[in-house]
Amino acid sequence: MAARGIHHVGIAVEDLEAAIETYERLFGAEVEHREALVDQGADVALLNVGDSRIELLAPRGADTPVGRFLEKRGAGMHHLAFEVDDVGAELARLAGAGAELVDERPRRGILGHEIAFVHPAATGGVLAELVGRG
Ligand code: CO
Q1: In the predicted model, is pLDDT for residue 1 greater than 80?
Q2: Ligand 1 centroid to 109 CA: how many Å?
Q3: What are phi and psi of 48, to 5 degrees?
Q4: How far apart are CA 105 and CA 98, in angstroms?
Q5: Which DSSP letter does residue 109 get?
């Protein structure tokens, strides 16, 4: 089964308000949704750019996945999210294909969607997220 498309591109930022303003001003992005993703340790803004989405992630503390990412690599692209029909089925298929996973089973992510992360080692160095439909 193939992914349906790119659900969003995740960008790690230091300052969420400044980043929103920048994407609005430079690319005409519009805020679709804002959420505190507590288990991911990030405050998130989902922006629409035409038919596409950007997810801006600011850390809720230094000792969070995004906080550690910023410390190590600085602001920039954090992950690529693929839209799939069934996150659990896709995780099982990827595990069967030998892909290294971050999440063994789906959890709740942005907009209440089922999500799961796939390790960058499996994807040429880019953290991948699976986002369920509906
Ligand atoms: Co994401």
Answers
A1: no
A2: 8
A3: -95, 135
A4: 15
A5: -
- Give the pLDDT confidence of 80-94 residue by residue, as tens digits: 999 999 999 999 999
pLDDT of residue 134: 63
In tens, the pLDDT along 30-89 reads 999 999 998 889 999 999 999 999 999 999 999 999 999 999 999 999 999 999 999 999
31 CA distance to ligand 1 middle (Å):
15
Residue 97 C-alpha to ligand 1 middle, in angstroms?
23
Taking the centre of ligand 1 as the mean of its atom positions, its distance from the CA of residue 129, in whole angstroms, is 6
Ion ligand 1: residues, CB within 5 A, are: 10, 55, 81, 129
- May I ask the CATH architecture of the domain 5-132? Roll (3.10)
C-alpha R_g of the chain: 14
pLDDT at 60: 96
Task: Tell me whether residue 62 is exposed, middle or buried, using C-beta atoms within 10 angstroms of its C-beta: 0 to 12, 13 to 18, 19 or more.
Answer: exposed
Residue 8 C-alpha to ligand 1 middle, in angstroms? Answer: 6
How many whole angstroms separate alpha carbon 55 and alpha carbon 110?
10
